[in-house]
Structure formats: structure tokens, C-alpha cells
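[Q] Does anyone have a clean C-alpha cell version of this?
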Amino acid sequence: MMYRENDLQRGHAANERNKDHGSTTDPRNQSQHAQYNAGGYAECDISDGSADGNNRHTQRGETQRSGTHAPPGAGQPSQDPQVGYGGYAMDNVATPPPPGGRHSEAVVSPKNMQTVFLGVCVLNIFFAILGTALSQLDVIGGACYTFWGYKRNCDSVSYTIRTQLLTCTPTRTRLQVGAAFSIISIFLVAGILCFYIREAVIKYMTRSTGSLPQAQQYGSVQGRGAPLKEIILARKKWIIVGLAALVILCEVISWAMTVSIYISRFCEGAAQPRDNAYGPGFALLIVGTLLLLLALPGFIIMT
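[A] Here you go.
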């Protein structure tokens, strides 16, 4: 706008000089000045009062422009979801969540938790079998007590005195109770493993034959066609949890009998120095119980 005003001033000054000297201007220059002046006045009359970066007022029906040129395709929305209007990238565009739900980013998924729980059950039954067979109380001199009797030489496989022949009644009773609950816990853990074995067999048969075996019995839940995995580890979930809770209870009772014998010191002089200590079988029972106790809450929450 400023250069147009300067041109107008120069044109008026030239006309004044021509008038003073009595000379006439070139008709072509006069027509150019007339057109230029008319365009300038028209622009000033039509302007809405706003100017852009080049001091140029926007015309009626014309959008206001900045000092920089708009990129190609600025008037059309981009087809790229990561690019906004005008072709510029949008940094804060919300991206859709990854597939897989809330467990996709989890460290332990439900399937992995089932595998962990299976491994814990295998370790538990292994420790229970070894703990039931090995020494519960070691006696100074190489002797020991197991759930099955007294050994003068704990490294041998033969028993010096069987449990039912022990003369100390409290010790005999507690060893028998400990052996009974230890065996019960072994069978309960075996029942949990049967669910996993049954699931593995059904999956193998499904992959081999390409169809679900015995679909009427195992392939649906109340006629709704639920997967086999849901039947065994979702529908039977609380059965597994109940069995695991019973296993923990039985194992606690089992090694609690050993603790009772150790603390009470039945049939021996309490004033005499202690001549026994906890054996490796007792330690294995406690380790198996703690492993199952730690894995059970995760199995309940994640499955």
C-alpha cells in the first residue's frame, strides 16, 4: 500500500511540474496513471481494514494470506490419519490401542500364568513326594525320624523301628497324622495336574482331527459354543482353586506335626540338651507349600 501511495504522490508532483512548465504529459502515461490510481482507490475502498504481512489489504471475497505461501493442497484435508489439514503432521493425534486388550502389555498373560501355575504344581508334588520319604527330624549320631519310622542309620533304606512300633505315643501319633495328610496333598495335586493333562489331550486331538472331540459334552457351555480352554480353565477354575487350597492346608498340617514334635520334645528330658534338628524332608515340604501359596493368588487374578 505504501508503494502505491508513493507512486500517486510522484504522479501528482509530475503533473504539477507539467502544468507549471506548460507541457503536456504523454497520453500513454496518463492512461497508465489513471488505471493505476483507479485500482489503488478501489482497493482502498473495498478493503475491510485488515492488512497482511506485505501491508496488502485483503479484498472482498478473498481470504487473508500470511507472509508465506501456503503449501500445495492446503485447502483440502489430508488422507493420512497422521497428517492434519493443510498437509502438516499432527503430533498429538490419538493412536488406536494395540490389539489384545489389557493383557497385551502385561508382563504375565493369562496363558503364561496358567503355565506358571502348572510348573508350580509339578514342583509341589515333586517336593511333597521327596519330603514324605526323607527325614523329618535328624538325630545326633546319624539317626533320623521319617513319617514311616525311625532309622538308626539315616542313609540306609531300611527302618530300625516302624512308626506303629514306636513306644512314644505322642510322637507316633503325630508322625502318622503327618504321613496321612502328606499323602492326601499328593493326590490332590495330582488331581490338579489331571485337568492340565486332559486339556493337552483334547487340544492334541483337536489339532490332529481338525474338529472338536465329543463336542456335545466338552465343546460347549450350555449350548453357547464356548472354547475348550474356557471349559477346563475358566469353568473349572474354582475347582482348581479349591483343590490347591486343600493342598496347602494338608501340607501345613503335615509339617506342623513335625514342628510339634520338635518343640514339645515328647518322651525325652526337657532339661537335657537338644539332640535333634529339622531334616531335609521337612524343608522340602515347606518350600513346596510356599511356592503354591505364592502362585495361587496370581492364578485367581490372571485367569
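[Q] Thanks! Anything notable?
[A] The mean pLDDT is 74.
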